[in-house]
Design brief:
470 residues, mainly beta, eight-stranded mixed sheet, 11% helix
Protein backbone atom coordinates (compact mmCIF):
# COMPACT_ATOMS: atom_id res chain seq x y z
CA UNK A 1 0.00 0.00 0.00
CA UNK A 2 2.76 2.36 0.96
CA UNK A 3 4.62 1.39 -2.21
CA UNK A 4 1.60 2.31 -4.33
CA UNK A 5 1.23 5.64 -2.59
CA UNK A 6 4.91 6.40 -3.09
CA UNK A 7 4.69 5.56 -6.75
CA UNK A 8 1.65 7.85 -7.12
CA UNK A 9 3.50 10.69 -5.39
CA UNK A 10 6.50 10.26 -7.64
CA UNK A 11 4.26 10.39 -10.66
CA UNK A 12 2.66 13.62 -9.43
CA UNK A 13 6.09 15.19 -8.91
CA UNK A 14 7.11 14.15 -12.39
CA UNK A 15 4.01 15.75 -13.85
CA UNK A 16 4.65 19.01 -11.97
CA UNK A 17 8.29 19.03 -13.01
CA UNK A 18 7.23 18.99 -16.62
CA UNK A 19 5.10 22.09 -16.24
CA UNK A 20 6.39 25.67 -16.40
CA UNK A 21 4.73 27.94 -13.87
CA UNK A 22 4.64 31.45 -15.35
CA UNK A 23 4.21 34.58 -13.21
CA UNK A 24 1.16 36.70 -14.00
CA UNK A 25 1.70 39.24 -16.79
CA UNK A 26 2.20 42.80 -15.52
CA UNK A 27 -0.79 44.98 -15.97
CA UNK A 28 -0.62 47.67 -18.62
CA UNK A 29 -0.03 51.10 -17.02
CA UNK A 30 -3.14 53.20 -16.61
CA UNK A 31 -2.40 56.22 -18.80
CA UNK A 32 -3.42 59.72 -17.77
CA UNK A 33 -4.00 62.70 -20.05
CA UNK A 34 -3.37 66.41 -20.19
CA UNK A 35 -5.89 68.27 -22.31
CA UNK A 36 -5.25 71.65 -23.82
CA UNK A 37 -5.77 74.13 -26.61
CA UNK A 38 -3.33 76.12 -28.70
CA UNK A 39 -3.82 79.22 -30.82
CA UNK A 40 -1.98 82.26 -32.15
CA UNK A 41 -3.05 85.89 -32.55
CA UNK A 42 -1.89 86.62 -36.09
CA UNK A 43 -4.41 86.46 -38.92
CA UNK A 44 -2.42 83.93 -40.91
CA UNK A 45 -3.96 80.94 -42.68
CA UNK A 46 -1.74 77.87 -42.54
CA UNK A 47 -1.38 75.76 -45.68
CA UNK A 48 -1.83 71.97 -45.78
CA UNK A 49 0.98 70.08 -44.10
CA UNK A 50 1.38 72.21 -40.97
CA UNK A 51 2.01 70.13 -37.83
CA UNK A 52 1.22 70.85 -34.17
CA UNK A 53 3.44 69.25 -31.55
CA UNK A 54 2.63 69.46 -27.83
CA UNK A 55 5.12 68.08 -25.29
CA UNK A 56 5.02 67.39 -21.56
CA UNK A 57 8.41 68.24 -20.05
CA UNK A 58 10.16 67.89 -16.72
CA UNK A 59 11.61 71.38 -16.22
CA UNK A 60 12.72 71.00 -12.62
CA UNK A 61 16.39 71.73 -13.26
CA UNK A 62 17.09 75.26 -14.48
CA UNK A 63 20.69 74.41 -15.40
CA UNK A 64 19.93 71.27 -17.41
CA UNK A 65 17.96 70.45 -20.56
CA UNK A 66 14.30 69.64 -20.00
CA UNK A 67 13.36 65.94 -19.99
CA UNK A 68 10.59 64.86 -22.35
CA UNK A 69 7.84 62.84 -20.63
CA UNK A 70 5.36 62.51 -23.51
CA UNK A 71 4.52 64.12 -26.85
CA UNK A 72 1.54 64.29 -29.16
CA UNK A 73 1.53 65.33 -32.83
CA UNK A 74 -1.28 66.42 -35.10
CA UNK A 75 -0.71 66.53 -38.85
CA UNK A 76 -2.36 68.88 -41.32
CA UNK A 77 -3.90 70.91 -38.52
CA UNK A 78 -5.84 73.52 -40.49
CA UNK A 79 -6.73 76.74 -38.70
CA UNK A 80 -6.70 77.60 -34.97
CA UNK A 81 -7.70 77.02 -32.25
CA UNK A 82 -6.31 73.48 -31.87
CA UNK A 83 -7.46 71.02 -29.20
CA UNK A 84 -4.93 68.41 -28.12
CA UNK A 85 -4.41 65.66 -25.53
CA UNK A 86 -1.07 64.37 -24.21
CA UNK A 87 -1.17 60.81 -22.85
CA UNK A 88 1.47 60.07 -20.23
CA UNK A 89 2.43 57.43 -17.68
CA UNK A 90 1.55 58.86 -14.22
CA UNK A 91 4.25 56.70 -12.66
CA UNK A 92 6.82 59.04 -14.20
CA UNK A 93 5.43 62.06 -12.35
CA UNK A 94 7.20 62.94 -9.09
CA UNK A 95 5.16 65.30 -6.88
CA UNK A 96 8.21 67.33 -5.86
CA UNK A 97 9.23 68.09 -9.45
CA UNK A 98 8.05 70.75 -11.92
CA UNK A 99 6.32 69.92 -15.21
CA UNK A 100 5.25 72.11 -18.11
CA UNK A 101 3.72 71.89 -21.58
CA UNK A 102 5.45 73.27 -24.66
CA UNK A 103 3.79 73.56 -28.09
CA UNK A 104 5.00 74.50 -31.53
CA UNK A 105 3.83 74.53 -35.15
CA UNK A 106 6.12 73.49 -37.98
CA UNK A 107 5.82 73.32 -41.75
CA UNK A 108 8.13 70.98 -43.66
CA UNK A 109 10.50 70.95 -40.73
CA UNK A 110 10.65 74.75 -40.38
CA UNK A 111 9.47 76.34 -37.13
CA UNK A 112 6.57 78.78 -37.57
CA UNK A 113 5.13 79.29 -34.07
CA UNK A 114 6.28 78.31 -30.60
CA UNK A 115 5.53 78.92 -26.95
CA UNK A 116 7.98 81.27 -25.25
CA UNK A 117 6.64 81.08 -21.69
CA UNK A 118 6.38 78.23 -19.16
CA UNK A 119 2.93 76.63 -18.84
CA UNK A 120 3.10 74.55 -15.60
CA UNK A 121 0.89 71.49 -15.09
CA UNK A 122 0.18 68.58 -12.73
CA UNK A 123 2.28 69.27 -9.61
CA UNK A 124 2.47 72.08 -7.06
CA UNK A 125 -1.25 72.74 -7.36
CA UNK A 126 -1.21 73.14 -11.15
CA UNK A 127 -4.05 71.65 -13.27
CA UNK A 128 -4.03 68.95 -15.92
CA UNK A 129 -5.44 71.36 -18.50
CA UNK A 130 -3.60 74.13 -20.30
CA UNK A 131 -4.32 76.87 -22.84
CA UNK A 132 -1.33 78.20 -24.75
CA UNK A 133 -0.84 81.15 -27.09
CA UNK A 134 1.98 80.56 -29.54
CA UNK A 135 4.30 83.32 -30.70
CA UNK A 136 5.30 83.73 -34.32
CA UNK A 137 8.92 83.16 -35.25
CA UNK A 138 10.43 85.95 -37.35
CA UNK A 139 9.48 85.44 -41.00
CA UNK A 140 6.91 82.77 -40.17
CA UNK A 141 4.17 84.38 -42.25
CA UNK A 142 6.35 84.17 -45.33
CA UNK A 143 7.07 80.50 -44.66
CA UNK A 144 3.40 79.75 -44.01
CA UNK A 145 2.02 81.49 -47.07
CA UNK A 146 4.74 80.38 -49.44
CA UNK A 147 6.45 83.76 -49.76
CA UNK A 148 10.12 83.48 -50.67
CA UNK A 149 12.95 85.99 -50.31
CA UNK A 150 13.68 85.39 -53.96
CA UNK A 151 10.29 86.87 -54.83
CA UNK A 152 11.32 90.08 -53.08
CA UNK A 153 14.75 90.27 -54.69
CA UNK A 154 13.44 89.48 -58.16
CA UNK A 155 11.36 92.63 -58.17
CA UNK A 156 13.86 95.28 -57.08
CA UNK A 157 14.14 98.23 -56.97
CA UNK A 158 11.07 98.55 -54.77
CA UNK A 159 9.47 101.02 -52.40
CA UNK A 160 7.79 99.93 -49.15
CA UNK A 161 5.62 102.28 -47.10
CA UNK A 162 3.46 102.27 -43.98
CA UNK A 163 2.56 104.14 -40.81
CA UNK A 164 3.86 102.29 -37.75
CA UNK A 165 3.20 102.91 -34.04
CA UNK A 166 5.02 105.69 -32.18
CA UNK A 167 5.43 106.02 -28.40
CA UNK A 168 5.19 109.82 -28.30
CA UNK A 169 3.64 110.86 -31.61
CA UNK A 170 0.69 110.08 -33.85
CA UNK A 171 2.65 107.51 -35.83
CA UNK A 172 5.86 107.06 -37.82
CA UNK A 173 5.42 107.19 -41.58
CA UNK A 174 8.06 104.98 -43.18
CA UNK A 175 9.25 105.13 -46.77
CA UNK A 176 12.00 102.62 -47.62
CA UNK A 177 13.61 102.22 -51.03
CA UNK A 178 15.52 98.99 -51.76
CA UNK A 179 17.99 98.89 -54.65
CA UNK A 180 19.41 95.89 -56.47
CA UNK A 181 22.96 96.82 -55.45
CA UNK A 182 22.15 96.21 -51.75
CA UNK A 183 21.63 99.87 -50.80
CA UNK A 184 18.57 101.39 -49.18
CA UNK A 185 17.16 104.88 -48.59
CA UNK A 186 14.86 105.42 -45.61
CA UNK A 187 12.68 108.35 -44.57
CA UNK A 188 10.87 108.34 -41.22
CA UNK A 189 8.27 111.04 -40.64
CA UNK A 190 7.11 111.54 -37.04
CA UNK A 191 3.50 112.62 -37.50
CA UNK A 192 2.30 115.56 -35.45
CA UNK A 193 5.81 116.81 -34.71
CA UNK A 194 7.37 119.87 -36.34
CA UNK A 195 10.57 119.04 -38.21
CA UNK A 196 9.82 115.41 -37.48
CA UNK A 197 11.40 113.91 -40.60
CA UNK A 198 14.75 112.14 -40.67
CA UNK A 199 16.55 110.38 -43.51
CA UNK A 200 19.00 107.51 -43.43
CA UNK A 201 20.92 105.53 -46.03
CA UNK A 202 22.96 102.35 -45.91
CA UNK A 203 23.03 98.72 -46.95
CA UNK A 204 20.81 95.75 -46.19
CA UNK A 205 21.56 92.05 -45.79
CA UNK A 206 19.38 88.95 -45.69
CA UNK A 207 19.84 86.79 -42.59
CA UNK A 208 21.28 83.33 -43.18
CA UNK A 209 17.92 81.69 -42.45
CA UNK A 210 16.39 83.76 -45.25
CA UNK A 211 13.60 85.42 -43.27
CA UNK A 212 14.97 88.71 -41.92
CA UNK A 213 16.28 91.86 -43.58
CA UNK A 214 18.93 93.75 -41.60
CA UNK A 215 19.27 97.45 -42.47
CA UNK A 216 22.50 99.09 -41.34
CA UNK A 217 22.69 102.82 -41.94
CA UNK A 218 24.12 105.75 -40.08
CA UNK A 219 22.39 104.77 -36.85
CA UNK A 220 24.40 102.83 -34.28
CA UNK A 221 21.86 99.99 -34.18
CA UNK A 222 20.46 98.26 -37.26
CA UNK A 223 16.77 97.94 -38.13
CA UNK A 224 15.20 94.51 -38.59
CA UNK A 225 12.27 93.51 -40.81
CA UNK A 226 10.88 90.02 -41.35
CA UNK A 227 9.94 89.11 -44.91
CA UNK A 228 6.30 88.07 -44.70
CA UNK A 229 5.95 87.74 -48.46
CA UNK A 230 7.19 89.51 -51.59
CA UNK A 231 4.96 92.51 -50.85
CA UNK A 232 5.02 92.72 -47.05
CA UNK A 233 7.73 93.47 -44.48
CA UNK A 234 7.09 93.43 -40.74
CA UNK A 235 9.19 95.57 -38.41
CA UNK A 236 10.92 93.65 -35.59
CA UNK A 237 12.23 94.91 -32.27
CA UNK A 238 15.80 96.09 -31.63
CA UNK A 239 16.90 92.48 -31.07
CA UNK A 240 15.37 91.25 -34.32
CA UNK A 241 12.46 89.53 -32.57
CA UNK A 242 8.72 89.75 -33.36
CA UNK A 243 6.87 92.57 -31.58
CA UNK A 244 4.01 91.20 -29.47
CA UNK A 245 1.31 93.68 -30.36
CA UNK A 246 -2.04 93.91 -32.11
CA UNK A 247 -0.95 97.23 -33.68
CA UNK A 248 0.21 97.44 -37.28
CA UNK A 249 3.95 96.96 -37.82
CA UNK A 250 3.81 96.09 -41.52
CA UNK A 251 5.18 97.93 -44.54
CA UNK A 252 3.67 97.11 -47.92
CA UNK A 253 5.10 97.40 -51.39
CA UNK A 254 4.06 100.52 -53.27
CA UNK A 255 2.49 100.06 -56.69
CA UNK A 256 5.51 101.70 -58.33
CA UNK A 257 9.08 102.40 -57.28
CA UNK A 258 9.41 106.03 -56.22
CA UNK A 259 12.72 106.91 -54.62
CA UNK A 260 13.06 109.62 -52.00
CA UNK A 261 15.93 112.14 -52.20
CA UNK A 262 17.52 111.66 -48.78
CA UNK A 263 19.10 114.75 -47.19
CA UNK A 264 21.74 114.18 -44.51
CA UNK A 265 25.43 114.38 -43.64
CA UNK A 266 27.54 112.02 -45.75
CA UNK A 267 31.13 110.87 -46.02
CA UNK A 268 32.72 109.30 -49.05
CA UNK A 269 35.63 109.23 -51.45
CA UNK A 270 35.64 112.28 -53.73
CA UNK A 271 37.58 112.46 -56.98
CA UNK A 272 37.83 115.01 -59.78
CA UNK A 273 39.14 114.79 -63.31
CA UNK A 274 38.57 116.88 -66.42
CA UNK A 275 35.48 118.73 -65.18
CA UNK A 276 33.87 115.49 -63.95
CA UNK A 277 33.47 114.86 -60.23
CA UNK A 278 32.54 111.58 -58.57
CA UNK A 279 31.65 110.54 -55.05
CA UNK A 280 31.57 107.01 -53.60
CA UNK A 281 29.35 107.25 -50.52
CA UNK A 282 30.61 105.11 -47.63
CA UNK A 283 27.39 103.70 -46.14
CA UNK A 284 25.77 102.62 -49.41
CA UNK A 285 28.86 102.06 -51.54
CA UNK A 286 27.11 103.94 -54.35
CA UNK A 287 29.34 105.66 -56.90
CA UNK A 288 27.58 108.88 -57.94
CA UNK A 289 28.28 111.90 -60.10
CA UNK A 290 28.42 115.21 -58.23
CA UNK A 291 26.24 118.11 -59.34
CA UNK A 292 28.33 121.27 -59.82
CA UNK A 293 26.05 123.52 -57.80
CA UNK A 294 25.42 124.58 -54.22
CA UNK A 295 28.43 123.93 -52.01
CA UNK A 296 30.29 122.00 -54.71
CA UNK A 297 32.76 124.81 -55.49
CA UNK A 298 34.08 124.75 -51.90
CA UNK A 299 34.60 120.99 -52.18
CA UNK A 300 36.48 121.30 -55.46
CA UNK A 301 38.71 124.10 -54.14
CA UNK A 302 39.60 122.07 -51.04
CA UNK A 303 40.46 119.10 -53.25
CA UNK A 304 42.75 121.19 -55.43
CA UNK A 305 44.37 122.79 -52.37
CA UNK A 306 45.15 119.36 -50.95
CA UNK A 307 47.58 118.88 -53.83
CA UNK A 308 46.08 115.53 -54.72
CA UNK A 309 47.07 114.07 -58.06
CA UNK A 310 43.77 113.76 -59.99
CA UNK A 311 41.89 111.46 -60.26
CA UNK A 312 43.02 110.15 -56.84
CA UNK A 313 40.18 109.97 -54.32
CA UNK A 314 40.12 111.75 -50.95
CA UNK A 315 37.70 111.26 -48.07
CA UNK A 316 35.23 114.17 -47.97
CA UNK A 317 32.53 115.06 -45.47
CA UNK A 318 29.55 117.02 -46.72
CA UNK A 319 25.97 117.92 -45.99
CA UNK A 320 23.74 117.34 -48.97
CA UNK A 321 21.18 115.16 -50.64
CA UNK A 322 21.03 112.36 -53.17
CA UNK A 323 18.85 113.64 -56.00
CA UNK A 324 17.62 111.83 -59.09
CA UNK A 325 19.19 113.64 -62.08
CA UNK A 326 19.70 112.88 -65.73
CA UNK A 327 23.33 111.96 -66.47
CA UNK A 328 25.47 113.65 -69.09
CA UNK A 329 25.31 110.43 -71.11
CA UNK A 330 23.10 107.37 -71.08
CA UNK A 331 19.67 106.63 -69.63
CA UNK A 332 18.44 108.05 -66.37
CA UNK A 333 17.67 109.50 -64.00
CA UNK A 334 20.51 108.35 -61.70
CA UNK A 335 21.37 109.10 -58.05
CA UNK A 336 23.45 112.28 -57.96
CA UNK A 337 25.13 113.98 -55.00
CA UNK A 338 24.05 117.59 -54.49
CA UNK A 339 26.35 119.29 -51.97
CA UNK A 340 24.56 121.79 -49.76
CA UNK A 341 27.57 122.45 -47.53
CA UNK A 342 31.16 121.25 -47.66
CA UNK A 343 32.50 120.30 -44.22
CA UNK A 344 36.08 119.06 -44.61
CA UNK A 345 38.51 116.68 -46.28
CA UNK A 346 40.14 113.81 -44.39
CA UNK A 347 43.24 112.78 -46.38
CA UNK A 348 44.53 109.33 -45.51
CA UNK A 349 41.12 108.03 -44.41
CA UNK A 350 39.03 105.53 -46.35
CA UNK A 351 35.56 104.00 -46.22
CA UNK A 352 35.22 100.88 -44.07
CA UNK A 353 34.23 97.60 -45.75
CA UNK A 354 30.57 97.64 -46.84
CA UNK A 355 28.03 96.18 -44.44
CA UNK A 356 27.25 92.50 -45.03
CA UNK A 357 26.63 89.30 -43.11
CA UNK A 358 29.74 88.31 -41.17
CA UNK A 359 30.97 84.79 -42.02
CA UNK A 360 30.25 82.10 -39.44
CA UNK A 361 33.75 80.70 -39.53
CA UNK A 362 37.00 82.50 -38.73
CA UNK A 363 35.17 85.47 -37.21
CA UNK A 364 35.85 86.72 -33.70
CA UNK A 365 32.42 86.43 -32.07
CA UNK A 366 32.12 88.46 -28.85
CA UNK A 367 29.50 87.11 -26.42
CA UNK A 368 26.84 89.72 -25.57
CA UNK A 369 23.93 87.61 -24.27
CA UNK A 370 23.56 84.16 -22.68
CA UNK A 371 21.24 82.44 -20.26
CA UNK A 372 18.55 85.10 -20.58
CA UNK A 373 20.84 87.97 -19.57
CA UNK A 374 23.15 90.49 -21.18
CA UNK A 375 26.83 89.65 -20.73
CA UNK A 376 29.07 92.23 -19.10
CA UNK A 377 32.64 91.00 -18.47
CA UNK A 378 33.66 91.22 -14.81
CA UNK A 379 36.32 93.76 -13.93
CA UNK A 380 39.75 92.40 -14.70
CA UNK A 381 38.36 89.54 -16.81
CA UNK A 382 38.94 88.99 -20.51
CA UNK A 383 36.19 89.28 -23.13
CA UNK A 384 34.10 86.10 -23.56
CA UNK A 385 34.25 85.03 -27.20
CA UNK A 386 34.49 82.14 -29.64
CA UNK A 387 36.11 81.63 -33.04
CA UNK A 388 35.02 78.72 -35.25
CA UNK A 389 38.13 77.73 -37.17
CA UNK A 390 37.66 76.49 -40.73
CA UNK A 391 40.79 74.40 -41.23
CA UNK A 392 40.87 72.46 -37.97
CA UNK A 393 37.11 72.20 -37.51
CA UNK A 394 37.73 73.40 -33.98
CA UNK A 395 36.27 76.15 -31.85
CA UNK A 396 38.55 78.27 -29.69
CA UNK A 397 37.87 81.19 -27.40
CA UNK A 398 37.46 82.28 -23.82
CA UNK A 399 34.71 82.18 -21.22
CA UNK A 400 36.07 85.35 -19.65
CA UNK A 401 38.50 83.54 -17.37
CA UNK A 402 39.73 80.42 -19.10
CA UNK A 403 40.68 79.57 -22.63
CA UNK A 404 38.31 77.19 -24.42
CA UNK A 405 38.90 74.64 -27.15
CA UNK A 406 36.72 71.92 -28.63
CA UNK A 407 35.07 70.60 -31.74
CA UNK A 408 31.98 71.74 -33.63
CA UNK A 409 29.82 70.45 -36.46
CA UNK A 410 27.71 72.51 -38.86
CA UNK A 411 25.07 71.03 -41.16
CA UNK A 412 22.94 73.63 -42.90
CA UNK A 413 21.37 75.76 -40.18
CA UNK A 414 22.15 73.13 -37.53
CA UNK A 415 25.15 73.29 -35.21
CA UNK A 416 26.51 71.24 -32.32
CA UNK A 417 29.52 71.65 -30.08
CA UNK A 418 31.55 68.81 -28.63
CA UNK A 419 32.89 68.62 -25.10
CA UNK A 420 34.85 71.80 -24.43
CA UNK A 421 38.22 71.67 -22.70
CA UNK A 422 39.44 74.67 -20.73
CA UNK A 423 42.27 75.89 -18.60
CA UNK A 424 41.73 75.87 -14.84
CA UNK A 425 42.44 79.45 -13.79
CA UNK A 426 40.66 80.85 -10.76
CA UNK A 427 37.82 83.12 -11.82
CA UNK A 428 36.46 85.36 -9.05
CA UNK A 429 33.36 87.16 -10.28
CA UNK A 430 33.34 85.47 -13.68
CA UNK A 431 31.98 81.99 -13.02
CA UNK A 432 28.39 82.98 -13.81
CA UNK A 433 29.18 84.08 -17.38
CA UNK A 434 31.39 81.04 -17.91
CA UNK A 435 28.56 78.74 -16.79
CA UNK A 436 25.99 80.45 -19.01
CA UNK A 437 28.26 80.21 -22.05
CA UNK A 438 28.99 76.54 -21.37
CA UNK A 439 25.29 75.74 -21.08
CA UNK A 440 24.47 77.62 -24.28
CA UNK A 441 27.12 75.78 -26.28
CA UNK A 442 26.02 72.44 -24.83
CA UNK A 443 22.36 72.95 -25.77
CA UNK A 444 22.91 74.67 -29.14
CA UNK A 445 21.08 73.09 -32.05
CA UNK A 446 20.65 75.91 -34.57
CA UNK A 447 22.38 79.09 -35.70
CA UNK A 448 21.71 82.12 -37.82
CA UNK A 449 23.54 85.33 -38.68
CA UNK A 450 21.83 88.71 -38.94
CA UNK A 451 24.41 91.10 -40.29
CA UNK A 452 27.12 91.31 -37.63
CA UNK A 453 25.22 89.18 -35.11
CA UNK A 454 25.34 85.42 -34.48
CA UNK A 455 22.51 83.73 -32.60
CA UNK A 456 22.52 80.19 -31.20
CA UNK A 457 19.20 78.49 -30.44
CA UNK A 458 18.03 75.19 -28.98
CA UNK A 459 15.95 72.52 -30.73
CA UNK A 460 12.73 74.42 -29.99
CA UNK A 461 14.08 77.63 -31.56
CA UNK A 462 14.62 79.41 -28.21
CA UNK A 463 17.49 81.87 -28.12
CA UNK A 464 20.44 80.61 -26.09
CA UNK A 465 23.23 83.06 -26.83
CA UNK A 466 24.01 86.09 -28.96
CA UNK A 467 27.40 87.22 -30.27
CA UNK A 468 28.64 90.31 -32.12
CA UNK A 469 31.33 90.18 -34.80
CA UNK A 470 34.48 92.11 -33.94
Amino acid sequence: MRTAMALAGMAAVAVLAGCVVRPPAPAEPMMATISGSATYRERIALPPGATLEATLLDVSLADAPAETIATTRQEDIGQPPYAFEISYDPRRIVPSRVYAVRARITLEGRLLFTTDTVHPVLTNGNPSTVDVVLKRVAGAAGRATGGKPGDLYATLPATFTGVLPCADCEGIEYHVDFFKDGAFFLRAGYLGKPDGTSDDIGRYALSTDGVTLVLQGGREAPLYFSIEDADTLRKLDIEGRPIDSTLNYELTRAGAFSSIEPALSMSGMFSYMADAAGFTECLTGKRMPVAMEGGYIDLERAYMAAEVEPPAAVMALVEGRIAQRMPMEGPGPVPTLVVDRFLRLAPGEACPPPFANAPLRDTYWRLTYAGGQAVVPAEGQSEPHIVLRTEEGRVAGSDGCNRLVGGYTVQGDGISFGQMASTMMACPGGTDVAKRLSEALGAASGWRILGRRLELSDAAGRLLARFEAS
